[in-house]
Amino acid sequence: MNTFIDKTAGIDSNVEIGNFSSIMKNVKIGKGTVIGNCVTINEGTIIGEKVRIDDNSVIGKRPLRAKWSVVQSSEMETNLTIGNECLIGAQVIVYAGSNIGNYVLIADSAQIREKITIGDYTIIGRNVTVEQKTNIGKKCKLETDCYITAYSLIEDFCFVAPKVTTANDNYIGRTEERKKHFKGITIRRGGRIGAGAVILPGIEIKEDGVVGAGAVVTSNVPAKKIVVGVPAKVLSDVPDEQLLENQGWE
Fold it and tell me: In whole angstroms, what is the distance from residue 155 CA to residue 176 CA?
């Protein structure tokens, strides 16, 4: 087994580490965790108990900054923390400086950038990208190929369907004025977005609001309303039986 484990790493009991994996300085791994083949766990990462990380994933990656990037930082990102009993698929990249709760699933080929928080029991689907400085609550579901832009907020019990696209720059990369107005999207508790919808910068989907498939959302979505179309307009109320308050969830 050709595995590298730095002498400063703290590895608890019953941890399995696959072939050609690398465990770097000051990493901590809780008991019962299973690390696949060709996994890299970068410096300072803290992993809880009974976590599974599949082949070819990179955990605790340091971000890159192009010289012309709008977002610049001279600070080293803080350590990545992954809670207990998380499942992390193959070819996943999770950056340093984020905090992943307990029982979170991050599916194959997903990318989680720096300064992200993800609440307990949330599911991040295959090939999902979550950009930096975004907070995601508990028991959310972000499905395959959706894109969550930087500076976004997603509260508890939210649903984002496949191929949803979000944006944070109304100036589309032109003029210095745009730097004053960068803002991602906000999805309040229980908000839902249908497949292939596009949500423009700064939009707020209020509590239990629903966006129909293929909609382009250019204004805020009222609470407990369904919006559809291009541009999206209110179609109807969310049926009572569909409201979060009537699901018996905590």
Answer: 31
